[in-house]
Amino acid sequence: MEDTRLTRRWIQPWIATSVALVSVGATLNYTSYSLIGQMIQVMAQLAIVLLACWWVDLKKYTWILYLMFFTTFLPLLGVAFGLYQQAPRQVLIYISYFSFSLIYMVVLAENFYSNIDKYVTIWQMVILVILIILLVINRDITLNIGTLIQALIEDERDINSRVAMGFNNVNQLGSFSGMLMILSLYQVCKKKYLIISIVSVFFSFVLIMNSGSRTPLLCLTLAALVATFAKLRKTWFGKIIGIATAIVMTIIVGGFLYLVFWGNVDSNLYQAVDEFTSYRVSLCASAMTILSQQANYIFGIGPMSSTNIRGVLDAASRQSVVIDNSIIYYVFSNGIVGAFGVVSFFIYLIKKMNQSGKV
Predict the structure, then answer these.
(1) I need a surface site. Which of 67, 318, 327, 342 has the fewest CB within 10 A?
(2) 236-262 vs 268-276: helix axis angle to the nearest 10?
(3) What is the gyration radius of the CA atoms in the chain, in angstroms?
(4) Phi and psi of 355, rounded to 5°?
(5) Which of 143, 234, 145, 218 is nearest to 182 (CA)?
(6) Angle (deg, nearest 10), helices 280-294 and 306-317
(7) Whether 212 contacts 278, CB under 8 Å
(8) Is there a contact between 195 and 218 (Cβ–Cβ < 8 Å)?
């Protein structure tokens, strides 16, 4: 037993280093250095699995089999029975990597469950350093925050003035800046690395404004509501926040999906929501039309990355598809059956988080 503890203690610095490399690779994956990022990320993930898989108590993670049933087992049957004829090889590759990613997440959870602060710190510092480096390289942000906020509120964002700062698109800069803000706010609440974390909050806010992306602001608001509910869930105020958030999110998601599948294109509501969401409604509706032509709603075209989906459709029918919504992506790739499995799994995770009171 003592030898095992010493071995695990000796391995921990290597695991922490590998986690840092994973965060480096994951961030670079969305820049012009994506190939290098992918290689770093996969190699570091593999190192973590090989170093730490021996101490994982698999009985604690049997609940993940539910997700694997919808994302791995059913797609394998789909390939075996010829449902995914467009690109069976890409489907098998994606299933393999997704399964490996689930194993990696289990190993990671086992090693950092009791030390989540360390994991948060690693990601925070890596993202902060990379964003600073990209800022120094590109130098294309503005500090005229008032004008940016006004443009965001009035939805008068000029695509030519929005900043990507080395990322493939402006929304990816917004997403990583939003992630940095959430991690930094967590550190502020924990009173750790206060000066760096406070500076990081303001820095990430400036980058979000320059990206012109509204998604990270929505995620930050939702994260704040979830955190408040988790802390106050046993009080009447916390219960009201939880119920109100669930109702609002159900209406938003349900309304969006209704417009995508059954919305009247000529209606004022459809056009207003479409314009407000940067035409995501019409883009997703177009994607569903293409799906009905190339495959079916029940099982989808096959689990693949968005890039591979675009490549397959372009090669098969010269059709272009834009999928900028997670639920629509899972319907398109894994079908309604797979999307139901993924969404219900995340609802289950939220329920477990509520029961434990941890965010």
Answers:
(1) 318
(2) 110
(3) 22
(4) -70, -35
(5) 218
(6) 60
(7) no
(8) no
Phi, psi of 31, rounded to the nearest 5 degrees:
-120, -170
| CA–CA dist 239, 33 (Å, integer) | 45
Residue 10 makes CB contacts below 8 A (sequence gap 6+) with: none
Cβ–Cβ contacts within 10 Å for residue 297, how many? 15
Cα 187 to Cα 193: distance, rounded to the nearest angstrom = 7
Using N-to-C axis directions, what is the helix angle for 2-28 and 88-112, rounded to 10°? Answer: 130
Report the Cα 311 to chain-centroid distance in Å.
22
Q: What is the pLDDT of residues 323-338, one digit of tens each?
A: 777 888 898 899 999 9
Convert the pLDDT of each residue in 102-138 to its tens digit: 999 999 988 888 889 999 999 999 999 999 999 998 8
Tokens at residue 74, please?
């059913």
Distance CA 131, CA 137 (A): 10
The answer to whether 333 and 305 are in contact (CB under 8 A) is no
Amino acid sitting at position 2: E
Q: How many whole angstroms separate alpha carbon 28 and alpha carbon 178?
A: 16
pTM of the model: 0.83
CA-to-CA distance for 197 and 200, rounded, in angstroms?
Answer: 5
Distance, C-alpha 193 to centroid of its chain: 26
Query: What stretches of 29-115 show up as alpha helix (H) in DSSP?
Result: 34-52, 64-68, 74-80, 88-112
Secondary structure (3-state) at 80: helix
Residues in the chain, overall count: 359
- The partner residues of 167 in beta bridges, in order of sequence, read 31
List, in sequence order, every residue forming a beta bridge with 31; answer none if it has no partner: 167
Distance from C-alpha of 6 to C-alpha of 87, rounded to nearest angstrom: 47
80 contacts 64 by C-beta, under 8 angstroms: no
